[in-house]
C-alpha cells in the first residue's frame, strides 16, 4: 500500500480506533528499524564473519507515550564496533552504521510512510482473513 | 553559487581547527611497511565525514557528522581524555571556516575510548554540523 504524504497518514490514524493506532504505530516503528538494519547490513564488510546476518531490528518496551524499536548487532558479532570505528585488523573505519543513519535522516518521512503503508496493508489483510 | 559538496573544504576547515591544539593531525595516521604504526603519538586523525542533504527550496545545505580520532600510548586514559577535552573546546559550539559555506551549528554528539590489543588507546568523538551555502 502506498501512502503519499503525512496528511494521509494522519487522516488514517484519526479515523481508526486508538488500539489500532498503537498497534500500527508499533509495527511502523519496527519497520523503520528493520529498514535501517537492512541498509547497515548492506554496508557492513562482506568478509567479516557473522556480521551481516547479525544486524537486526527488535521491538523495545517504550512507554505510554513513546513507541520504540532498535537496530542492534547480536552478541555473535560483538566485534562490530572495532570495524565501525577502524580498530579492526584491517584498520579501516567502515562506518557502516554512521553512513546508514546519515542516509536515512534526510529521507525519514518517506521511510516512515513506506513502513506505515506496509504495516497498514498487513493489518488490513489480517483483519480480512479474520472476518472471512 | 557553490557547485560542489563541501567535502574537501570541510576537511580543510576541520584540519585547520584541530591543528590549533598543537599535536599532529592526519587524514590517516602513517603506517610502516609491515603494517605497524609509524605515527608520532599522541596524534589526531580526521575520520569518516558522513554527509546528508539539508536543502530547502532555495538554498543547498548539508547535515554532517565528522568523526575525530585520537591515538595515544601510555598507562592510562587520562592523556587522551585531556586531548578530547581540547578538541571539545575547539569544536563544540565553535566555528569552522568552510570555503563557500556558512556553518550554523557544530555540536559534540559522543565520545568513546577503547584500549587496543597493542597497548595503545583509541578515542573517538563525533561532531554534528550544519552547513548552508554562502
- What is the tally of beta strands of chain A? 2
The total number of structural domains of chain B is 1
**What coarse outline of chain B follows from CA principal-axis ratios?**
elongated
Structural class of chain B: alpha+beta
Greatest interface and its participating residue counts: A-B, 15 and 20 residues
**What is the terminal separation of chain B in angstroms?**
8 Å
Average pLDDT confidence of chain B is 90
Estimate the strand proportion of chain B: 35-45%
Number of H/I helices of chain A: 6
Strand order of the largest sheet of chain B: 1-2-3-5-4
Helix content of chain A: 55-70%
Termini separation of chain A (Å)? 21 Å
Mean pLDDT of chain A, rounded to whole units? Answer: 90
Gyration radius over CA of chain A: 17 Å
Contiguous runs where pLDDT drops below 50 for at least 5 residues of chain B: none
Q: What do you see in this structure?
A:
The complex is a heterodimer of chains A (132) and B (134). By secondary structure, chain A is mainly alpha-helical. Helices cover 60% and strands 9% of the residues of chain A. Chain A has 6 helices and 2 strands; from the N terminus they run αααββααα. Chain A has a two-stranded antiparallel ribbon with strand order 1-2. In chain A, a hairpin with a 7-residue loop joins β1 and β2. In chain A, α2 crosses α5 and α2 crosses α6. The longest helix of chain A has 26 residues. In chain A, 27% of the residues are buried. The model of chain A has no long low-confidence stretch (mean pLDDT 90). Chain B has 134 residues and is α+β, with helices and mostly antiparallel strands. Chain B contains 2 helices and 5 strands. A 5-stranded mixed beta sheet of chain B has the order 1-2-3-5-4. Chain B is elongated, with a radius of gyration of 16 Å. The model of chain B has no long low-confidence stretch (mean pLDDT 90). Chains A and B meet through α4 and α5 of A and β2, β3 and β5 of B.
Amino acid at each position: 500500500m502506498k501512502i503519499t504524504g503525512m496528511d494521509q497518514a494522519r487522516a488514517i490514524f484519526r479515523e481508526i480506533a486508538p488500539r489500532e493506532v498503537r498497534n500500527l504505530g508499533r509495527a511502523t516503528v519496527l519497520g523503520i528499524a528493520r529498514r535501517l538494519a537492512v541498509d547497515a547490513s548492506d554496508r557492513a564488510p562482506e568478509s567479516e564473519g557473522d556480521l551481516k546476518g547479525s544486524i537486526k531490528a527488535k521491538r523495545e518496551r517504550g512507554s505510554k507515550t513513546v513507541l520504540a524499536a532498535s537496530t542492534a548487532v547480536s552478541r555473535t558479532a560483538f566485534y562490530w564496533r572495532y570495524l565501525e570505528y577502524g580498530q579492526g585488523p584491517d584498520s579501516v573505519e567502515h562506518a557502516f552504521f554512521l553512513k546508514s543513519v546519515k542516509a536515512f535522516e534526510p529521507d525519514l518521512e518517506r521511510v516512515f510512510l513506506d513502513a506505515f503503508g506496509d504495516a497498514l496493508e498487513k493489518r488490513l489483510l489480517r483483519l480480512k482473513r479474520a472476518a472471512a | 553559487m557553490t557547485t560542489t559538496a563541501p567535502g574537501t573544504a570541510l576537511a580543510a576547515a576541520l584540519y585547520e581547527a584541530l591543528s590549533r591544539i598543537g599535536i599532529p593531525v592526519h587524514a590517516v595516521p602513517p603506517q610502516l611497511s609491515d603494517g605497524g604504526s609509524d605515527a608520532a603519538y599522541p596524534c589526531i586523525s580526521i575520520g569518516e565525514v558522513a554527509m546528508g542533504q539539508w536543502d530547502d527550496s532555495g538554498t543547498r545545505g548539508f547535515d554532517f557528522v565528522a568523526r575525530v580520532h585520537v591515538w595515544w600510548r601510555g598507562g592510562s586514559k587520562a592523556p587522551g581524555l585531556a586531548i578530547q577535552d581540547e578538541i571539545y573546546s575547539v569544536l563544540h559550539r565553535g566555528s569552522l571556516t568552510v570555503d563557500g559555506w556558512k556553518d550554523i551549528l557544530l555540536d559534540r554528539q559522543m565520545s568513546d575510548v577503547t584500549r587496543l590489543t597493542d597497548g595503545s588507546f583509541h578515542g573517538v568523538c563525533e561532531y554534528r554540523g550544519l552547513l548552508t551555502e554562502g
